[in-house]
Automatic annotation (TrEMBL):
Substrate binds at D38, R62, G84, R141. Catalyzes the specific phosphorylation of the 3-hydroxyl group of shikimic acid using ATP as a cosubstrate. CDD domains: SK. Its main location: cytoplasm. Its EC number is 2.7.1.71. ATP binds at G16, A17, G18, K19, T20, A21, R122, Q158. GO terms for molecular function: kinase activity. Pathway: Metabolic intermediate biosynthesis; chorismate biosynthesis; chorismate from D-erythrose 4-phosphate and phosphoenolpyruvate: step 5/7. It is an enzyme of class 2 (transferase). This is Shikimate kinase. PROSITE patterns: SHIKIMATE_KINASE (PS01128).
Amino acid sequence: MGFHLQKTLVLVGLMGAGKTAIGTILAQELGVPFVDSDDEIVKAANMSIAEIFERDGEAFFREKETLVIERLLTGRPMVLSTGGGAFMQARNQQMIAERGVAVWLNADLEILWERVKGKTTRPLLMGKDAKQVLAGLYETRNPEYAKALVHVESQRNQSKGVMVERVIKALLENDASGVTKDK
Ligand SMILES: Nc1ncnc2c1ncn2[C@@H]1O[C@H](COP(=O)(O)OP(=O)(O)OP(=O)(O)O)[C@@H](O)[C@H]1O
Ligand SMILES: O=C(O)C1=C[C@@H](O)[C@@H](O)[C@H](O)C1
Ligand SMILES: [Mg+2]
């Protein structure tokens, strides 16, 4: 069964929400390319995100992130997974709303923590109080993510495949998503 996308689907949400993991499968199911803005920055800089934060600082990373998202939104429709902080910037939100469709992958704090704890790839969660930091981001960022057009919440013990099916269902149910199923 084929699908048609009018605009790029931009996955937003906190670290561990599944933007990369779900986005990869979603793109395969929809038959469009998948790009992850974090990966694009890493490739261009030839450094890990942790190294970029360490050497050049978060503000530098955010500038690159905006440029990558801007570039990718001008191409043909795809699934674009963003870094967890990308949707916090008004400029990025505006660009995404104008040229793409924002999809918020949400999950409760405990699920997110289970997925990200012990990993060393996310510089914002590298301190001893990582769970408190994540809880703080959960409080401050959720009102911003909630501005996305489409919302899908992860359920505990649900496979990635089922989550992808739920995302597709939510997109098809929302005419403004620009996603349709071929007849
Ligand atoms: N629905 C799901 N069911 C089971 N595991 C999941 C699900 N979604 C994500 N995961 C797992 O959780 C981990 C974190 O997910 P992922 O890296 O996709 O998050 P992210 O939203 O891209 O985070 P970041 O903002 O840091 O890039 C991965 O190991 C992934 O396989
Ligand atoms: O939530 C965030 O601010 C971040 C999430 C990751 O995807 C990376 O973009 C980086 O680690 C920052
Ligand atoms: Mg990711």
